[in-house]
Amino acid sequence: MALNNRQWVIAARPTNRMLLDGDFTWTQAEARAPGDGEVLLRTLYLSFDPSQKGQMENVGGYAAPLHVGDVMRSGGLAEVVESNDPSLKPGDKVSGSVGWQEYPTMRARDVQKLADDELLVENLGALGGTGMTAYFGLSKLGKPFPGDTVVITGAAGATGSVAGQIARIAGCRVIGIAGGPEKCAWLTEELGFDAAVDYKSENVGKAVRALAPKGIDVLWDNVGGEQLNDLLAQISLYARVVICGGISRYAAEEMPAGPQNYFNLVFKRATMHGLLVLDYLAEFPMARARIAEWIREGRISTRADIQEGLENAPKTLIRLFTGANIGKQLLKV
Ligand SMILES: NC(=O)c1ccc[n+]([C@@H]2O[C@H](COP(=O)([O-])OP(=O)(O)OC[C@H]3O[C@@H](n4cnc5c(N)ncnc54)[C@H](OP(=O)(O)O)[C@@H]3O)[C@@H](O)[C@H]2O)c1
């Protein structure tokens, strides 16, 4: 019997504006029977990432183009329902680019088989794209030394929270910038950040100057705009600035002028480096094993914000841009 595959397709491009519910159409199709080398999957969890908005706009060029009418692209976790490939059998758990749909049919070689253990859902967070971003952005570009002061914007999100904890493991002093007292308390009380600044109620420049009078050695930026500019004024000699994201720009009508304080890179002989996690794909297995060990040892804590129901996927993506999520944003299908 053919399965009813409920899904969300793209209805509009959200360029130079905030995402809207109406950018997606709720529809259904018959699930496609798997061909040779393919598997029919049932989606269990979806991962939500700010870059999905950029992919709908086709900015960046590092992801294949998306078009109006396409099923919305998304990473997720799924269970094999039917398999036409010897590497997978019904019941196996996999991760892959399943999209916003209940029953995707995919090539077996495009999904990754996962251990069905207590860390299964972490494969979309600390053991998935955001954890890999934190690990490689910090180790390859941030290059933290014990005793360094590390400042992280967007610190209470999926990437920032893991990056901060890895910097702590590396022996650094870590200051997180996040929106609201609940997020700041989570950073200092549960994740071991040395300090947190609530950018919604405090002046970031002033607060960080008081917390790090000798300057910032590693600046990890997820936000861009005013926060990046204020913090560039406070980098120390030979600082490493890692540009991971710029979420304050993603829904802006017009791009802001470049950061006025960029010239401090010259005075401080500092580097500012753009990060793209896909550059390190070949090394993901090593980083996954390492982060899994840190989670098991209790040295890295994670938190997922789990919404429910595929029908709520558009609203769940919007949560990232309103700051409603703490930790990794997921949806249980
Ligand atoms: N370069 C790469 O390879 C790579 C890979 C993964 C992710 N990223 C980037 O890393 C960043 C974090 O991604 P994530 O998946 O971990 O998301 P996330 O941090 O879990 O969620 C996004 C967070 O951004 C903050 N935010 C939203 N709008 C903002 C604004 N206008 N100004 C300041 N903060 C705002 C919100 O936190 P507050 O409540 O604290 O504002 C929100 O919770 C994004 O910029 C993303 O594009 C880059």
General description of the model:
By secondary structure, the protein is an alpha/beta fold. Strands 3, 4, 5, 6, 7, 14 and 15 form a seven-stranded mixed β-sheet that branches. It has a six-stranded parallel β-sheet with strand order 10-9-8-11-12-13, sandwiched between helices. The chain is globular and about 65 Å long. Strand 9, helix 4 and strand 10 (195-198) form a beta-alpha-beta unit. It is built from nine helices and 15 strands. The chain folds into two domains: 4-125 and 303-332, Quinone Oxidoreductase, Chain A, domain 1 (Alpha-Beta Complex); 129-278, Rossmann fold (3-Layer(aba) Sandwich). It has helices at 51-57, 129-142, 158-169, 181-190, 204-211, 225-232, 264-267, 284-296, 313-322; strands at 4-10, 24-30, 38-47, 76-83, 93-96, 105-107, 112-113, 149-153, 173-178, 195-198, 216-221, 235-243, 271-274, 304-308, 328-332. NADP nicotinamide-adenine-dinucleotide phosphate (NAP) binds at residues 49-51, 129-130, 133, 154, 156-160, 178-180, 183, 222-223, 244-245, 247-248, 275-277, 320-321, 323, 325, 329.
